[in-house]
Amino acid sequence: MGSFSIGWREAILGILGLAFLLPAAPVHAYQDQEAERGSEVFARRCSTCHGDRGQGLTDEWRATWPPTHQNCWKANCHGAQPYPENGFTLPRVVPPLIGPGTLQRFATAADLYAYIRARMPFHAPGSLPEEDYRAITAFLLQRHGIPADGQPFDPETARGVPLHPVASREEKASGEVFVFIQRGLPWWIAGGIGVAGLLWGMIRLRRRK
Length: 209
Ligand code: HEC
Known about the structure:
Keywords: Heme, Iron, Membrane, Metal-binding, Transmembrane, Transmembrane helix
Largest sheet: none
Number of domains: 2
Oligomer: single chain
Organism: Candidatus Thermoflexus japonica
Number of helices: 9
Number of strands: 0
Order of helices and strands: HHHHHHHHH
Pfam families: Cytochrome_CBB3
Structural class: mainly alpha
GO molecular function, one term: heme binding
Protein name: Cytochrome c domain-containing protein
Shape: elongated
Bound molecules: heme C
């Protein structure tokens, strides 16, 4: 009886700490250098349509183009229709990729990567080198608040990297504090608190014996 009542508070503290440690341990995400290179590729190959800040094809972004290009749809500036091989029809609507509420349809980094690799750039799908697709994905992960962990982006392990940390509303209610602590504290501090809690509980247990 006595031994049960002694350590339970410390044990719970310790288990909670370890619970933080497990899911907060670094996921296999990407390297900073990759994201940096991805930002350059994005500027060259994606930003014409998706905007310099990933804001999408907004009027504000179109206004920065040369005047003769601002009304591409009418001016046929990408060649006479039907378009030549290297020309393309400018889409009317291009979704934003960076900012609140963007990329909602992709559950994991792997889904995002697979889509971009298969479908983008819109007018020439699959035309970029493989490492450019990885670098762009790394760049978008970075802009969505997913930290780099020093490991190169890998499409396989990317399945374990959720793009939106809290998926559903129910999860949100119970997960907010958890996610807040996870993101606010480096994993080794949260884990350290857990280990310290366990040790403390064990020391107290021994003292009472
Ligand atoms: C010629 C214009 C154009 C270019 C260049 C382009 N895209 Fe797109 N992109 C589009 C359009 C149009 C859509 C919407 C397609 C759809 O919904 O079927 C889209 C959709 C997307 C989506 C899905 C967004 C969502 O939330 O549904 C992603 C991600 C994306 N593009 C990434 C890229 C990347 C990365 C590049 C550069 C390698 C790129 N795009 C280059 C026009 C473009």
